Amino acid sequence: YNGVVRWFAQHSDRILLLFDAYKLDLSDEFKDVMKLIQGYDKKVRVVLNKADGVSPQDLMRVYGALMWNVGGVISAAEVPRVYIGSFWDRPWMHVGMLDLMEAEENDLIEDLVTLPQNNVMNKINEIARRARVVEAHTHLLAYLRSKVVSKWYGKKEEQERLCSPEGLLEAYAQVQRQHDISRG
Fold first, then answer.
1. What is the distance between the alpha carbons of residues 123 and 47, in angstroms, rounded to a whole number?
2. H or E element: which one contains 49?
3. Closest-CA residue to 47 (of 109, 119, 117)
4. Among 56, 58, 70, 77, which residue's Cα sits nearest to residue 24?
5. What is d(CA 130, CA 6) in angstroms, rounded to the nearest whole number?
6. Regarding beta strands 81-84 and 44-49, do their DSSP bridges make them parallel or antiparallel, or are they unpaired?
7. What is this structure's pTM?
């Protein structure tokens, strides 16, 4: 199950987490899914559904509780975008925030419609990121090899020293300085 969730998270362009304004409790299974999709924070959007069923004042409380619940599970630098709306075919119950909810629904639809265009740019960015990682690994391996090959005696000891956590940190730092590579 976990592997399937990770596969879908990796291969999807957008991940929508749907919440009902009447039931914000997170089940253990839903918490597990939210933990599994960590690392794909840029893809995650939150939808607060049936928001017309609560008064505007209660909606603020519901929104705050939703953010508290989601923030307790997803540890991301930024809070995911939350869309507030009523995505069912029933008549609106509270029309006090009708303009807001219609604007939010339009924003969600716009977000979904523009996914194919954004997908091309995301793929280009991912290829560039992977190329930087390959370049960093290449420089690191070349550095490690040069340190071991340059020794006439004590190659085994030098290999062990370089492969230790301290040796690798030293090698990373040296390669970063030599080739102007970022820490990320």
1. 25
2. strand 44-49
3. 109
4. 70
5. 19
6. parallel
7. 0.67
- Given a contact cutoff of 8 angstroms between Cβ atoms, the answer to whether 75 and 125 are in contact is no
Task: Give the up-direction half-sphere exposure of residue 132: CA atoms within 13 A in the CB hemisphere.
Answer: 11
**Token digits for 181?**
């590579």
**What is the dihedral sign for C-alpha 62, 63, 68, 73?**
positive
Measured CA to CA, the distance from residue 44 to residue 49 in angstroms comes to 16
Cα distances (angstroms) measured from residue 105 to each of 53, 133, 171: 16, 39, 51
Extract the tokens encoding 9: 């998270």
Supply the DSSP symbol for 20.
Answer: E
- Per residue of the chain (184 residues), what is the pLDDT tens digit? 888 988 998 888 899 999 988 887 888 888 888 888 888 888 889 999 988 888 888 888 998 888 888 887 877 777 889 999 888 777 778 777 888 888 999 999 999 998 888 778 878 888 998 999 999 999 999 988 888 777 667 778 888 888 888 988 899 899 999 998 887 6
Q: Which overall architecture, per CATH, does domain 2-113 show?
A: 3-Layer(aba) Sandwich (3.40)
Locus of tokens 């939808």: 47
